[in-house]
Each structure stands twice: as C-alpha cells, then as structure tokens.
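Can anyone check this?
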Amino acid sequence: MRVIQRIRGYATVIGQARRHRGDLVGWLGRRPQIAAATVTYETALLFSNRLDPRLKELAELKTAGLVACQFCLDIASALAHTSGLTREQLVDLPRYRTSDAYTELERLVIAFAEAMTATPAVDLDELRASLLTHLTKAQLTELAAAIAWENQRARLNQGLGVRPTGMSDGLVCAMPEPRSAHLARPTEG
C-alpha cells in the first residue's frame, strides 16, 4: 500500500511542475546510460518501503537544504506535503534540535542526514547506534541509501544548473540552510 501511495504522491508532485520541466531530462538525455542508472536507483528507492516514507522525506529534505539545491527543495517540499509532514516540521527543519515539531526518532533521522551530508561525514557511530534502537538494520540501510542518493541528486542538479519547477508553489517550502548551520554543534551547558 505504501508503494501505491508514494507513486501517487510522486505523480501528483511531478504533475504540478510549471516551469523548467525539461532541465533535468534534457541533461540526462545526453547520456542515456546515466539516465537509465538514475531511473533504476530512483525506482529501487521508491519500492523500498520498510522505512516510514515520512522519515525518508525528512532526511531528504534536510539533505537538500544543507546542499542548497533549489530543485531538490522544490520537489522534496512538495513530496513532504503528500507524505503528511506538517507546515511546522518544514519551517522548523533548521532548528530541529529544539523544535517540538519532531519526535525523538525524527530528530535522530534528521541528525543522521546532517552527519552524512557533512564533508567528511561525521559522528555517525553514535547516531547509527541510537537509530538501531528504533529501526531495523534493513530500515537503516534504506535511510542511509536515501540520504546518500539525495546528496548525489542535489550535487548533480546543482552542477547542471537544474532549476526549480514550481512543484511546491503555494505550499510551505523548506529553505536552503547556511553552510554553518550543519557544522555547528549544540553546546553542552
């Protein structure tokens, strides 16, 4: 059932594209092998549904914000709405540590996305252990793959100049986060 809901969500969101629709397809069309590999991996992630899709959406949205990919923020914000994330969750993403909008698990997922997106990836051992108290190894594998792929997507889109298409027009949209936001660690006091 999750797969059908996710496919419907993707179809709805892609149908909302209003401008620059051909940017990504135009670039990938120049290298069919890369386009085929991209579609294959996207499909594998779409059909991997051991992990709650809301958690994937949170992780991907945080990653897109940290990498500051406008296209990724556009599509991820729209997908977040279809998966049931709240307005407050999207707005509070940069300050997830102190926001009441998230559960403990959601905070861990966002922190994991933040740690995996940092270059080099940092503080993963403790986060992984904490996540494994809530998730199975299969779910954590799916989460890590989604975060890694979002990093790939975001950097490819930025490298090619893929622009937002308006999929999230009229909705609350997550914003790019300053580079220092994910490098700063909370102080203990």
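Reply from J.R.: I decoded it. DSSP finds ten helices and no strands in the chain.
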